Amino acid sequence: MSEHKHILVVDDESQITRVLRTSLSSHGYDIRVANDGETALEIMKDWSPDLVITDLAMPNMDGLDLCRRLRTKTQVPIIVLSVRGEERTKVKALDAGADDYVTKPFGMEELLARVRANLRRVRTEESDLAPIEEGDFKICERSLFHRTRWGYTTGRQYRAPRLHGCGVDAGSSQG
What we know:
Structural class: alpha/beta
Strand order of the largest sheet: 2-1-3-4-5
Number of strands: 9
Number of domains: 2
CATH superfamily of the largest domain: Response regulator
Number of helices: 7
Distance between the termini: 26 Å
Radius of gyration: 17 Å
Strand content: 15-25%
Shape: globular
CATH topology of the largest domain: Rossmann fold
């Protein structure tokens, strides 16, 4: 994989986060870990994940609240990883904004396949976007073009104009 995709793992069980960090890192992903939803939101102020894997039962802010909060700000894919396997719980998580649901205990190969599938879906959606043009600026894919030069934009800079409809100014003002 040419560009390391960023994955935020949100779980208060250190054994699960250790296994996920090791396995996902060994497959070329850049991993950050948060022990609860509040910490996850703090991490995301300075780091833009391409995918979030979260548990449901955590202190301070649970996984359902995290899904709801994330959906007000971003369309990043969210995979819920939980011991709760009842249909009602799965439906609540999906309705709260999760894109996928995996029940613990889980097979690592299945989880990796779901990660790839969710990342593939986002990549397809991003490639279908038309370039954004405003004045002397143009954003196309993940490149920012000016009439006289071009440069690479980060995930946060790239997503801001697209999601909020604020034009190029929204992305260029974020650092």
